[in-house]
Amino acid sequence: MWPLLEQTNAIGGQEITSGSYTIRFDQDRKQTIWGLGFEIQSDSIRSGNNGMDDKLVSGVPYDLTESERQRFYDQMLRAGTGDRGFRYCRLAMGLYHRGLDKDKKRMVDRYKGQTALLADMLAKSRIEGVSVEYWSPAPGWKSNKKYIDGGLASFEPDFLDALGDAMVDDLDFLAGKGVPISMWGLQNEPTKTKTGYSSCKYSAAQYRKAFKAIAPKIKKKYPKALIIAESDHGWTEDIGKALKADPEALGHVDAWAFHKIGHDSTKQLTGDYTSGAAGKPVFNNEFEYLHWDKEKIGPWHTINTAQSIMNWMTFQNAPTWFWLHALKPVTNGEAEGYALGYWGPNGGGKPINGAPRLETGHWDFNPLHWNAVAGFLKYMPWDSVRYHVDEPKHSGKKPYTEHRIMAWRTPKNKPAFVVTNRASKPFTYTVDTQSKGDFQGHRYGPSTNNESIGTKKGPKLTVTVPPMSIEFWASGS
User: Tens of pLDDT along 64-100?
Assistant: First the structure.
C-alpha cells in the first residue's frame, strides 16, 4: 500500500468503523463546481517522457478509427451520460500541439487536420473548450532556438510585445478552426529544466515581466478566458509571490494553478492553498502518479484520486480539478500512472508496464484511474453547488482521512453526495441529508464501475461502504 501521510481513522489503535454526518443544505452554499478537466495527447512523445518523436505522426484522436473515436467521445469524455462529462481539455502548446510556421514563431498543425480533429472531438464530446498552456513558446522566441530547455531570448519590452502578439495568433489559429478557448497559461512548471521534453525556464522576475506584457493581450482578445498563473506552485513560491507583490500583475491573475501530482489526498485536507490566494480561486490542473517505473499502481490509488478531487473542493474550495491524460499509447511506459485509458498507436510496438494489448486505432479503459473520476462526471453535473457537511473529527481536531464525504446540489437542485472508504474494514455512514426524497446508490472501485446498489429514502441514510470503495448517492425525486 502507498504510504499514508497521517492516517486518522483509528482511536487508541482501534480502527473506526462508523460515523454520523449532517449535510447542511440549510446553510449558505459554498463554491460552484464548474466541472472536471483532462489533457489530450494529440501528438507523439517517446516513452518515459524522453523527448518528442517528430518522425512519427501519432496521437488522439488522430490514431483512432472512426468508430473508436466516437466510442471514446461517448464512453469516456461524456462518461456515458448521454449529455456532458468533462468540461475542459488541457492542450499542451509546444508539446502536443507543436507544428511551426516558417519563422518558427507561431504554432500551427504538425500534421494535416490536427486542429480540425480536436475541434471535432470537443464538439462531439460537448466539451466547453481548451485550457491552452505553454510547455514552451515557439523556438523562434527562445535562447536556444529549441522546444526543449532554454528560456526566452529577451525580456525587452518590444520583444515581449511581439511574443504576446504571436501567442494571441496561436489562439486565433485554434479558435479559427473551431477550438473554443476557456483558459490560458503562460508556462507549465516554469522553474523546471532538463526535462527531456518541451520546457522554458523563468525566474520570478522574468515570469512577472512576461506575464504583465502578455496576459493583457490574451484577455483583450479572449475576455472570457480564465488566466491561470504559475501552474505548479500557485501563489506559494517565488513566482507567485512576485506576482502578488505587483498589483498590476496580480490584477491579471484569474486563478492559481497547482501541481500536487500523485499526492496523498490528506495534503489537501491539512494543507493551506487559499490564505495567500488574494481572493482568487485555486485548483489542481494536473494529477497523475509518477512512480510508474518503481511500483505498481493499486487499489489505494483509485480511492486516493477520488479523495483528491473531494478534498481540493471541500477544504480548498476548488471549482475544478484536472486529471492528466485521457489516453496514453500502450508503448509509453508512464501510461499506467498517467492515463485514464490506453490506445494502440500508429507505428505499433509492444505494450509495456502492464498496458493491455490493443489493435492499432483501438482503446480501452485503465480502470484503476477511470473508476476514480467517472462517478464525478456522471453524478456531479457542471455548475453543481457544494454544501458543507458536519462530520466527526479524530480526537476532536481533524476529519477522518480514510473516510471522506462531499455533498452538492445539481443545477436542477437535486441533492447528492459521495462517500469513500480508503481503509481496510467496512465503514458505515449515517447521513442526515435534510432531504425527504429517494437516493439511488452507485458504487465505484478499482474493479467496479457504476454498480447499482439500491435505493434509500431520506432524510437519514445509513450506508455501509466496503473497503477501497467510492459511493455516489443521488436524488431521483
Answer: 999 999 999 999 999 998 899 999 999 999 999 999 9
Which runs of consecutive H residues, i.e. helices, occur in 177-264? 204-221, 238-244, 247-251
The Cα-based distances of 366 to 28, 139, 342 in angstroms read: 38, 35, 7
- Dist CA 190 CA 119 (whole Å): 28
Digit-coded pLDDT (tens) for 136-166: 999 999 999 999 999 999 999 999 999 999 9
Q: Which of 60, 61, 64, 58 is nearest to 46 (CA)?
A: 58
Among 320, 476, 473, smallest CA distance to 406 is for 473
Phi/psi of residue 414, nearest 5 degrees = -85, 130
Is 319 strand, coil or helix? coil
Q: Is the dihedral of CA 305, 311, 316, 321 positive or negative?
A: positive
Distances (CA, A) of 250 to 188, 206, 278: 18, 15, 9
The alpha carbon of 245 is separated from its chain's Cα centroid by a whole number of angstroms, namely 28
Query: For the whole prediction, is pTM greater than 0.85?
Result: yes
